[in-house]
Structure formats: C-alpha cells, structure tokens
Amino acid sequence: MDPSKWDFYTMDCYRHVGEDRLAATYAEEVIRTGTTPDGVVRRPMRVAEAHITLGIVAARQGELEAALAAGRTALALDRKSLPSLVMHSRELVAELDRRFAGDQRVVEYVDLLRSLAN
C-alpha cells in the first residue's frame, strides 16, 4: 500500500465501524497532510472525503450545523471525482436523514448534492 494513503484508509475503516473519535482524528490528519501550510489543497479527493467523514461524525453526535458545514466544504473543493464524492456523500445523507429527518437544511443539502450529480 502507498504509505501516504494509510491515514486515509484508516479513517475510512474507523468511520465504517463507528469508531467516530478515531475516524475524526484520522480525517483531521488527512486534511492536514493533504493541504499545504498556505491552504492549497494538494489531495482534493482525500481531503473531500475527510470532510465527509467529519460531517458523518458530527451528525452522529447530533451536531447538524457542523455536519452540513463539513459536507458543503467537501462539495466545494476543486477537482472532484463526482461519482466517488456522491457515493461517499450518500453515507452522510443517510446519517442526516436518520437523525434530522425533515429538517429543511438537510433537504437543501440533498438538493445541492443532486445538482452536482446531474
């Protein structure tokens, strides 16, 4: 395995098994190592998925605004692989629907995601 992807894959694994504290720790590391000190994102897809992970963790903790902000950040990054980003964003949407069903802010986020997918 490419050593530079270790934190990324570890983040994914912890997110999938519900180890939110560890998933968030690795997501923050992926963002840190994928971004230059002056704020240029060098690994946009890894960083985008890390933001999605932070959004999922926030949603699981009942923090709707933080979850939506993380999701929007992921969608706003340049150089997206839309199929991959949409797939990972669906996990965030599922968590938002589970915890905040019917909230207008969630509906708006889903609409934003749909507009990017079309």
Average pLDDT, rounded to a whole number, is 93
Order of helices and strands: HHHHHH
- End-to-end distance, in Å? 34 Å
Strand residue content: under 5%
Q: How would a crystallographer describe the biggest sheet?
A: none
**Helix-residue proportion:** over 70%
What's the overall geometry?
globular
CATH topology: Serine Threonine Protein Phosphatase 5, Tetratricopeptide repeat
Q: Return the CATH architecture.
A: Alpha Horseshoe
Number of strands: 0
Oligomer: single chain
| Overall tally of domains | 1
What is the count of DSSP helices, taking H or I runs of 4+ residues? 6
Low-confidence runs of at least 5 consecutive residues: none
CATH C-level name: Mainly Alpha
Secondary structural class: mainly alpha
In a few lines, what is going on in this structure?
The protein is mainly α and 118 residues long. It contains six helices and no strands.
Any overview of this molecule?
The longest helix has 19 residues, at 82-100. The model has no long low-confidence stretch (mean pLDDT 93). The protein has a single domain (3-117), classed as Serine Threonine Protein Phosphatase 5, Tetratricopeptide repeat, CATH 1.25.40. It is mainly alpha-helical and 118 residues long. It has helices spanning 6-16, 20-33, 44-60, 64-76, 82-100, 104-117. Helices cover 75% and strands 0% of the residues. The relative contact order is 0.12. TPR repeats lie at residues 48-81. Keywords: TPR repeat. This is Tetratricopeptide repeat protein.
